[in-house]
Design goal:
- The chain is of the alpha+beta class.
- It folds into three domains: 15-73, Uridine Diphospho-n-acetylenolpyruvylglucosamine Reductase, domain 2 (2-Layer Sandwich), CATH 3.30.43; 80-191 and 414-444, Uridine Diphospho-n-acetylenolpyruvylglucosamine Reductase, domain 3; 194-399, FAD-linked oxidases, C-terminal domain (Vanillyl-alcohol Oxidase, Chain A, domain 3), CATH 3.40.462.10.
- Helices cover 32% and strands 24% of the residues.
- It is built from 14 helices and 20 strands.
- It has helices at residues 35-48, 98-107, 123-129, 166-172, 204-209, 211-217, 248-268, 275-287, 297-301, 321-334, 382-394, 409-415, 419-429, 438-444, and strands at 15-16, 23-24, 28-30, 52-55, 70-73, 80-84, 89-93, 110-111, 145-151, 157-161, 181-188, 190-191, 194-203, 222-225, 231-240, 291-296, 309-317, 344-349, 364-372, 398-399.
- A hairpin with a 5-residue loop joins strand 9 (145-151) and strand 10 (157-161).
- The longest helix has 21 residues, at 248-268.
Length: 445
């Protein structure tokens, strides 16, 4: 095909997400190094009537990044473009991994105020799916975005911020990869800081009865509940001026614990009733004593996902936290055959005005459930999954966009007051559906 300087796509590339739970075989796989090259790929897609999927770190535990047509991997467009020390803002290319950005920012004495658990993810992807952490004073990661540039299906570049293309900005801050190619993102930063992390044991009753106290006591409060028990590990993370501490031996225990966990969970695939004992044993082994640690913020926010897993993560209005969690606990008690791996991770986020944010116009509680895949083996999870989804829906929940869920357009129209607004922006920017895939068709059709 005659083109400027021939952008070559690779055939035969197999794409898989991090957990190896979803994958696809794109017809052509591109790693562009410039905006011009992306434009040419979009031209080629238009001429051949192909769809385009842009992917970053491929970490999403769903098929949101899968396609059989053209795939653009943004890893080579990963530069820091500008650091504005006065405004404490940084502008980066969409393909930069947060792990690299964290290091770059610390050289300038800056940091992101909040980060998810994983940093091997691209800036454009993190905002695309609404990545979050915890802290009722902090919004999801897209709330830290103050501007971005978008390359649309027609090849036009749009600058977007609160003051320019404001509607597109509110859509693009959580874009699902369906509005165009996010070329650059500008994040609001804060001065670099250290975090003091304290983890201590508690019970589910105590935490739920004193939830407001915990939320006020720590800036980044979360807790882990160990299903089939009352056991909870409470985690406080707060800025500190104290020097970093060494926690190497604790991490060693943790790593050894995870290897043992994988082995025991594999055995439990033959004897499911072992799971409740495994959950209790690991609480006793790893979480039943108080642990403290001080380090630079991003090292505390990030932790290693040790082995492959299926996850679900829904956000419910914060006032429904106690009711929903106790319902999940009762459902497990009433169905002895239904097993749930630890932990159920409970986090909190401030409400925002981003159209497709699970925290749109409400402070929220995220309840993350997990089923590990020991040595890659799938563990039956359907009953647990459906029970959990039923409880979340009943309490006005909205699913995390990166995770697998069974919702369709009908659900999203109910969940999101601004859903029609988002749809009209998407249809205007991408009238032919170039950036759709199977996952997104369920969302929009």
């Amino acid at each position: 095909m005659p083109m400027g300087h021939e952008v070559h796509g690779q055939g035969g590339v197999k794409f898989q997400n991090w957990a190896k739970t979803y994958g696809s075989s794109p017809e052509l796989y591109f790693q562009p190094t410039s905006v011009e090259e992306i434009r040419e790929i979009l031209d080629m897609a238009r001429q051949r009537d192909k769809r385009v999927k842009v992917v970053g770190g491929g970490h999403s535990p769903s098929d949101i990044a899968c396609t059989d047509d053209f795939m653009i991997q943004m890893g080579k467009m990963n530069r820091v473009l500008k650091v504005d020390k006065e405004k404490q803002q940084v502008t980066v290319e969409g393909g930069i991994f947060l792990s690299d950005l964290n290091v770059e920012l610390s050289k300038h004495g800056l940091a992101l105020a909040n980060l998810g658990a994983v940093s091997e993810v691209a800036a454009a992807g993190v905002i695309g799916t609404g990545t979050h952490n915890t802290g009722i004073k902090h919004g999801i990661l897209p709330t830290q975005v103050v501007a971005l540039t978008l390359l649309t299906a027609s090849g036009e570049i749009l600058e977007c911020s609160e003051s320019i293309n404001a509607d597109i900005f509110q859509a693009a801050r959580l874009h699902l990869g369906c509005l165009g190619v996010v070329l650059t993102v500008t994040f609001q930063c804060v001065p670099q800081f250290h975090l003091h992390e304290v983890a201590f044991p508690s019970t589910l009753t105590e935490v739920l009865d004193h939830l407001d106290d915990h939320l006020q006591r720590s800036q980044y409060f979360r807790f882990l509940w160990f299903p089939h028990s009352e056991n909870v590990s409470v985690i406080y993370q707060d800025p500190t001026n104290k020097p970093p501490s060494s926690s190497a031996s604790w991490w060693w225990d943790y790593a050894v614990g995870y290897y043992l966990l994988e082995f025991l969970l594999w055995i439990s695939t033959f004897v499911p009733s072992l799971v409740c004992w495994i959950n209790r044993f690991f609480f006793w082994l790893l979480f039943s004593s108080r642990v403290e640690n001080i380090a630079i913020s991003y090292k505390i926010f990030n932790y290693e996902c040790r082995f492959k897993q299926h996850v679900q993560d829904w956000a419910i209005p914060i006032e429904k936290t106690k009711e929903a969690l106790l319902e999940l606990k009762a459902a497990l008690e009433n169905n002895p055959k239904m097993v749930a791996h630890y932990p159920v991770e409970v986090r909190f986020a401030r409400g925002d005005e981003i159209w497709l944010s699970p925290c749109f116009q409400r402070d929220s509680c995220y309840m993350n459930i997990i089923m590990y895949r020991p040595y890659g083996k799938n563990v039956p999870r359907l009953n647990y999954w459906l029970t959990y989804e039923g409880i979340m829906k009943k309490h006005g929940g909205r699913p995390h966009w990166a995770k697998a869920h069974s919702c369709t357009r009908k659900d999203f129209e109910k969940m999101y007051p601004a859903f029609p607004k988002f749809c009209s922006v998407r249809e205007k920017l991408d009238p032919t559906g170039m950036f759709l895939n199977t996952y997104l068709e369920k969302v929009f059709y």
